[in-house]
Write the structure tokens for this entry.
Amino acid sequence: MTTPTTTADTLATVHAFNDALNRHDVDAVMALMTDDCVFENTWPTPDGERYEGQAAVRAFWERLIAESPAAHFDLEEIFAVDDRATQRWRYTWVDSAGAAGHIRGVDVFRVRDGKVAEKLAYVKG
């Protein structure tokens, strides 16, 4: 049975998720995602790629962190209502040649029973 998610619960879950991701702690990230989680990446354009379930989403995060060990998301703004949250972020990285880069984007979350059920990511093109 699903328990109704409050706005405060949603914000706490998303903040914990962001913290785990910035620590590059894939186990903690996945512990904060439902078994049937959905993640939609910003790439490839125009629609991104969709990952469904723990194994597929875990593989994405492991690959991202391995390919971009300096990756970091800076939260610019977040708001939530009940089980939904939206956040603006700035993602920074350093490429293999040592050059720094960044993009800005938005995530739309759905939280269920204290875990992220959906994370849909969009980026400024």
